[in-house]
Amino acid sequence: MKGQYAVLRILIAGFLLYVAWPFIPQSVTSIEQLFWGSWLFLFLLVIGANIASLLQMIQPPIMEQKREKQRKTYNH
After folding, report:
1. Global pTM?
2. Which of 4, 6, 19, 31 has a CA between 20 and 30 Å from the CA of residue 12?
3. Per the UniProt record, which residue ranges are transmembrane (predicted)?
4. What is the helix (H) or strand (E) element at residue 68, kind and residue range?
5. How many CA atoms lie within 13 A of 44 on its CB side?
6. CA angle, 27 as apex, 21 and 30 as ends, to 5°?
7. Measured between alpha carbons, how far is 25 from 22 in angstroms, rounded to an integer?
8. How confident is the model at residue 69 (pLDDT cuts 50, 70, 90)?
9. Cβ neighbours around 50 below 10 Å, total
10. Residue 56 backbone zone (phi > 0: left; psi -120 to 50: alpha; other: beta)
11. How confident is the model at residue 15, as a pLDDT?
């Protein structure tokens, strides 16, 4: 269950990159290049954080931790 949310977030980020990719080369001014550069940086952060979550390098978000605790209490 943990991995499903991370995969979903990676897929959504990939879709947003797919939609944005045609517009990135059209940026001419420095403001546009700064925007797309920061957008790509945030995209890489999102992808990296979710891959780290999939590899269990970091703890899952609080929302997902609460669900695991609830499942454990129902099972015992």
Report:
1. 0.69
2. 31
3. 7-24, 36-58
4. helix 62-75
5. 6
6. 135
7. 7
8. low
9. 21
10. left
11. 96
Of 41, 39, 38, 49, residue with least CA distance to 10: 49
Predicted local distance difference test score (pLDDT) of residue 44? 96
Q: What is the dihedral of CA 1, 19, 22, 51, to 10 degrees?
A: -10
pLDDT at residue number 41: 97
Place of tokens 């990676």: 10
Q: Quick check: 44 and 38 in contact, CB under 8 A? A: no
Instruction: Give pLDDT tens digits for 4-62.
Output: 888 999 999 999 999 999 998 998 999 999 999 999 999 999 999 999 888 887 776 67
Distance, CA of 26 to CA of 58 (rounded, Å): 37
Task: Return the number of other C-beta atoms located less than 10 Å from residue 6's C-beta.
Answer: 19
CB 50 within 8 A of CB 10: yes
